[in-house]
Amino acid sequence: MMRVLAIALVAALVLVGASLDTSAQSDAPPIKIGYAISRTGPFAPGAQATQEPSYILWAEQVNAAGGLNVKGQKRKIELVSYDDRSEVETIVRTFEKLMVTDKVDLILPPWGSTANFAVAPLADKHGYPVLAPTALSMKLVDMKLPNFFSMLPQPYVLMAAAADMLAANGVKTVAVIYMDDVFGLENIAAFEPAVKAKGIEIVDKKSYPLGIKDLSPVLRAIKDKNPDAFVGLTYPPDTILASKQSKEIGFNPKVFFTAVGTAFPLYKQVMGADSDGVSGIGSWSVKTSPAAKAYFDAHVKRFQKEPDRWASAHCWAGLQILQAAIEKVGMDRKAIREYIASNEHATIIGPVRFKGSEIQFPGTVGQWVGGDFEVVWPANRATAKLVVPKPAWK
Predict the structure, then answer these.
(1) 84/86 Cα distance (integer angstroms)
(2) Within this chain, do residues 125 and 183 fall inside the same structural domain, yes or no?
(3) How many CB atoms neighbour CB 4 within 10 A?
(4) Is 209 helix (H, G, I), strand (E, B) or coil?
(5) pTM for the predicted model, two decimal places
(6) Residues 162, 191 contacting (CB under 8 angstroms)
(7) Residues facing 205 on adjacent strands
(8) Alpha-carbon gap, residue 336 to 348, rounded angstroms
(9) Does residue 6 sit in the same domain as residue 94?
(10) Which helix (H) or strand (E) holds 35?
């Protein structure tokens, strides 16, 4: 199902692409903004849920308003994009082409921690600022690349919030699985000390490779240990796989928490009523702000599908910040970088400021509640009340 949906969306995006070349419609030259994104391969479900639709919607909205105001002149956006096929070598090669051969004015980031880890040093070398909405990597932050900005709070922030939620709801034991890549490794490294500091015992811990097709042996072993909570530091296909196979074997702990993909509309489409009570990483809902609701409605109208309730809004916030920088300082990339680094920015997720590469934004937990994905932790960010214990699988 994920492959069919991804292919359908890619077809729609290809048709849209031609309409974004607006250079013939204005006397001012267009601003060429380039990116490579996963339209095929294992990263495609995430990339097509979280990033590329927002890139297209933003460009269309800006162009419909006459373009970006650059030093008093309206300039429209021309998107220059490629399929990176979820291959790191292709990602690096394509961004090199965009910056060196295509000579785009600006770039937009790829999807996922692994891809951003590969691209960020290259973008910094060529002086292109990057506002990355799907990069969770303290290694990237520790590299202190001046042009790199993470739009998501880092693993130690997110995992501390998850640990707080577990402890506050009486969890004493937890089992965890994690993707054997940058995302999984950094998040498990943050999760372990966070839960141990709360007195929670990790009774089982297993890694798994990208592209895994069967998690049932691991899940059966975990079920035998009867943990209070299950945490999957998973990517979208594995989030759904772990959920479906847990239902099949009757594994239904007090808290069932999965990572990337839990907040995707696809999760509810696949899991149906079984989505209710499943927790995961999520940071916004339509109740977060009027601007968040407006973004949600525009996304649904344009693509006939909902954005995800985690990184989609952070992606849109990054585009808002980029737009504000351009309209304030013009097209000089160094000046854009300085503006991003030095100011507080109004966005649909609230005021945003950076400390070095890190966004100053709290860790949050989301949950499917009554058929919608809501922020449920911490209380001062919650748009609905956390449901614990998780209801039984239907």
Answers:
(1) 5
(2) no
(3) 8
(4) coil
(5) 0.88
(6) yes
(7) 176
(8) 20
(9) yes
(10) strand 31-37
